[in-house]
Design a protein that fits this description.
- By secondary structure, this protein is an alpha/beta fold.
- The protein has a single domain, classed as Vaccinia Virus protein VP39 (Rossmann fold, 3-Layer(aba) Sandwich).
- 38% of the residues lie in helices and 20% in strands.
- It contains nine helices and seven strands, in the order ααααβαβαββαβααββ.
- A seven-stranded mixed beta sheet has the order 3-2-1-4-5-7-6, sandwiched between helices.
- It is globular and about 45 Å long.
- It starts with a helix and ends with a strand.
- One of its GO terms (molecular function) is methyltransferase activity.
- It holds the Pfam family Methyltransf_25.
Length: 260
């Protein structure tokens, strides 16, 4: 059994982290970055779980940046759905933007797009890609939704792709997202629902992967848990879809609206 689990590590890692490299040009990796002016006020000292999260993602950032997307069809479907929801006048906040591939594709459709991630190394790679593909509306910042605030009612949309299952405090992250949204704004999320996949993933494979430094802390969630957590923060789910196209890859695409 353990041999089979070990051999499945790459597939499980794709469910957990969903690397986002789309044949992107190789960029020089730098070791530090500052927040962009648009989000500099959200910076804060890292401590405790936030520091541990940052350390994990900093360490895997170079590999994450070059690994291919495991489910390209599912990714493209999600991208198309989100593109149809964004407007030229929109101010958008992305939580957990990784190396910025999605932000670079969505930002041109908006007036202002602030992309954030807990990992300074991820953001460094995102800055390098941004320099090769200048997008005036886009800015990147190092920020963790569990330790930072993003203001009150500043954004028309908050995006959280492959992020919510990684939150140590899901309620806090959703509260921060709800606060950042304007009345009527949308939280657009995509989350692997690991609890609806093979139960060995959450109870055996992930703990083993964490022991060898191959997985971060995460939650094994059902979609109904995500919807309930959103409702608790005044976010009503208006779209519920499944965007994983591979066998047993269950990813809930949820769009939740903040009350007017």
């Amino acid at each position: 059994m353990f041999t089979a689990i070990y051999r499945s590590f790459p597939r499980i890692h794709a469910w957990i982290a969903s690397p986002v490299s789309i044949n992107a040009p190789h960029s020089p990796y730098v070791h530090a970055t500052s927040c962009s002016r648009a989000a500099r006020g959200h910076r804060g000292a890292r401590c405790g779980p936030s520091a541990a999260k940052a350390a994990f993602w900093d360490r895997i950032a170079p590999k994450y940046a070059t690994d291919p997307i495991a489910d390209m069809a599912g990714y493209r479907h999600t991208l198309q759905r989100v593109q149809a929801m964004l407007r030229p006048e929109h101010h958008v906040l992305e939580l957990g933007c990784g190396t910025g591939i999605t932000a670079l594709q969505l930002a041109p459709l908006t007036r202002r797009y602030v992309a954030t991630d807990v990992s300074s190394q991820m953001i460094a790679i995102a800055h390098a890609r941004h320099a090769q593909q200048p997008t005036p509306a886009l800015s990147f910042a190092v920020a963790d939704a569990e330790t930072h605030g993003f203001g009150q009612g500043l954004y028309d949309a908050v995006l959280a792709f492959n992020l919510l299952h990684l939150a140590s405090d899901l309620e806090l992250v959703l509260r921060v997202a709800a606060q950042a949204l304007r009345p009527g704004g949308l939280l657009i999320s995509k989350t692997p629902c690991i609890a609806e996949m093979n139960p060995l993933i959450g109870h055996v494979a992930v703990p083993l992967m964490r022991l060898v430094g191959q997985a971060p802390a995460l939650k094994c969630l059902h979609e109904h848990q995500l919807q309930a957590a959103m409702a608790k923060q005044g976010l009503a789910v208006v779209i519920s879809e499944r965007h994983g196209t591979q066998r047993k890859d269950i990813r809930a695409f949820l769009v939740a609206r903040k009350a007017d």
